[in-house]
Amino acid sequence: MKTTLEIDDELYREAKAHASLTGLKMKDLVTAGLRLALEPAAKRTGPAAAAASRELAACFAEADKLMKAAPRGPIAREHLNKGRNRLEKP
């Protein structure tokens, strides 16, 4: 099913960076997050859950560091729009 979500810009950038760093698509990351949020609390405890939580926190911290260090510039959509016609045949 397709849906539209409004996500805070900073949270989206962090999630997108995490997805990129882990080789996931955004839809897969969102699905995993929803499954985790809907999972009964009893299943989310224990050493495996703690390790997963630490790993996720470390990934987000790394993504945050990379995003803050990245130079500001045009967003991806602007790059795509600018180069849209360069592939058209004359």
Provide a brief overview of the structure.
With 90 residues, this protein is an all-alpha fold. It has one domain.
Structural class: mainly alpha
- The number of strands is 0
Helix-strand sequence = HHHH
Number of domains: 1
Relative strand content: under 5%
Radius of gyration: 17 Å
Mean pLDDT: 78
> How can the largest sheet be summarized?
none
Number of helices in the DSSP assignment: 4
Distance between the termini: 39 Å
Sequence stretches where pLDDT stays below 50 over 5 or more residues = none
What sort of overall outline do the alpha carbons produce when their principal axes are compared? Answer: extended
Helix content bin: 55-70%
Which terms would index this structure?
mainly alpha; 90 residues; single chain
Indicate the topology:
Layout: H1 9-22, H2 26-38, H3 47-69, H4 76-83
Q: How would you describe this protein?
A:
The chain has 90 residues and is an all-alpha fold. It has one domain (9-87). The protein has four helices and no strands. It has helices at 9-22, 26-38, 47-69, 76-83. α1 (9-22) packs across α3 (47-69). The longest helix has 23 residues, at 47-69. The model has no long low-confidence stretch (mean pLDDT 78).
